[in-house]
Protein: HTH gntR-type domain-containing protein
Organism: Thermogemmatispora tikiterensis
Amino acid sequence: MATTEEKEPLFEPIAVPKRNFEIVEASIRKAIYNGTLAPGQKLPNEFELAQQFNVGRSAVREALKVLELAGLLVVRRGYNGGTFVAPPSFEEANEATTLSFQPGNMQPQQLLDACLTIEPRAAELAAVHASELELSDLSELLQQLEQGAYLPARYLTAVADVHLSIAEMAHNAVFKLAVQAMRTPLIQELNRFIGDQSLRQTVNRDLKMIGQAILNREEHQAGELMRHHLQHLADWLLVES
């Protein structure tokens, strides 16, 4: 009977787990910096990484999210998707931009001004340039948004993912870079108010309408709806700040 050849693991298991996600994050970061993981290389899935590191999947998931926010990894959705090592140029630019967008370096008004400058145009371009696969992924994200409405942590991530997905669909690398850099500050600002049901209802309604305009290829409408959505967020963030 033929036996399947086992692949050699990329990482050593952690013998005595302590702050597991930090150890996993540091190990993957080191592998990227020393070239063990090359730009564009696909990482094993969460289950395989958890086995290699001898940790739970939640630790792997948190480590991958930290590295994604740092610009060292990129997540691609859909067919042949997964988690990949970011190209060097993207990594360097994103790391510098993300550092400049840390919450301590800005006021809510500055964050909103940047969003209002970039995201309405990104929504317009998304309505023009998005592929059918990207539109399908957007519909799925909007469904996840509704499903996570009663789980604050998941809900905030879903909101940020919809914004980032729209920027990606614009097929403009600068827009994507800027929105990705603003992702964490936006989540932290919204976290102060996410317990308010009326805010969640407003955000859900806004993003659903924006998504529908993009799906219908309504360029002008998508931009206007995004502008109104960001103004609704401004009404909350600036009044309460």
Notes: The mean pLDDT is 83. The first strand starts at residue 73 and ends at 76. DSSP finds ten helices and two strands in the chain.
